[in-house]
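Weekly sync notes, structure subgroup
Attendees: PM, AL, DS (notes)

Item 1: joint prediction request from the bench team. They want all two components modeled as one assembly rather than separately. Inputs as received:
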Amino acid sequence: MVSLVKQPLLSLLPSCNATTQSPKQYPFANTPFKSSQSHFHGLKLTFSNPSSSLTPLISKTSVIVSAKVNKGSVPPSFTLKDQDGRNVSLSKFKGKPVVVYFYPADETPGCTKQACAFRDSYEKFKKAGAEVVGISGDDGVSHKAFAKKYRLPYTLLSDEDNKIRKEWGVPSDLFGTLPGRQTYVLDKNGVVQLIYNNQFQPEKHIDETLKSAQV
Amino acid sequence: MSILPNHHHHPAAIGRHYRRRSHRVYAAATTPTKTRPKLEKLTINPTPLITPPKLDDPSLKSTWSHRAWVATGCTTVIASLAASLIGSIDSHIWLEPILSGFVGYLFADLGSGVYHWGIDNYGDASTPVFGSQIDAFQGHHKWPWTIIKRQFANNLHALARVTTYTVLPIDLIWHDQPVAMGFVGVASGCIMFSQQFHAWAHGTKSKLPPLVVALQDGGVLVSRSQHSAHHRPPYNNNYCIVSGVWNRFLDENKVFEALEMVVFFKSGRRPRSWSEPNSDWTESTVESPAMAD
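Output from the run, pasted for the record:
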């Protein structure tokens, strides 16, 4: 199927270079969020004309980028703790499609909309045989409260220090100040079939990835 | 600059009108791990609910001090505009000063939105410099109708004072620059009178002068409908209150949401608009005359 990789234009600015740095008091404060240098190699950019002057500026421009985890590749495995403190490995989901969505933080407006949208469409994902996993830098306590408050039926994983985010090459936004919002759809063999990025229209992640999961 | 109801010179009056139900303190706590420090909401020393101001409350009336500040503010604005006009005539230019004035008008609207956003979302009554204004803004959300009962100079005097302090030195330094004076005159005038535009935006169509209604309907002044949207949950849009021309762009492009996210990730501070509507925001239904139609 055709992969759809859209990235905000601003995510391609200085943040996507240099070495990984340890976060300080705030994971992203004073240190532009960076992914590994190989993220830039083989970078391919195309721009599409904006279709409407009323769409949000930041997600207006579509860019095709060769990220570290690309369509067609098998992403590096991980083992992270979920909201109940249990270790969860990506390999656990092999044999069925899985939607892995990286989001900035619990209890922020966009992430809440996104989480609730995934919740509301969860049955459709289940019907397609797919699982949904959300990943952010928040700890298990935060995830547990977030999941409980909004009755989220799926797994939230704690990527403390944003190690997995960097390994997968999730680009940041706004000159590295914001963790990016990027969703991957992996097929039952663990191969990436779709990557979708949109920071400020979080509900669109559900529409795009559901279509992919249902194929 | 103060945009919404001015802070009074009488703390008791401030407390009587605008004291909130409870105080919120945001504290950042570091954790042993490298996770983002969490902000914890603490509710301390809840204060009893204060009754809303009466319609004929003396604190809504203008004093001679208020009038004096409005006079000085207007003087500095008029001086800017006069300097621009005279300089333009002397220099035989007209397009540039007019354009710069228009840019000043646009700048004032954008500035009003950014300031309003900041004051609405961050800090509290104890914040240095801005504390009284922050408290007043919260009070305005609780009792928005008081602004239409406030007399003219009472409403504008705080902005007029800031205008005086800011524009007077600019007038003295750049009085011979007609283009700059055009920008300064229009921008400062719009900012100073933004509180009046704001009050009109809370008015009732039938009670407003026809010219004001026409300017609101024409998008020259912020409209009643646009501003009333700001007073509805989630209270995170339509922050601009001069013409409102920036509101659609800023809201559709999630500019303030982006700024809020950046502030959150840089400092850990959550804006008030991220919280569930609570008594700080919710308009009181006690003795509230009808809002604008």
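Discussion: DSSP finds five helices and seven strands in chain A.
Action: AL to compare against the crosslinking data before next sync.
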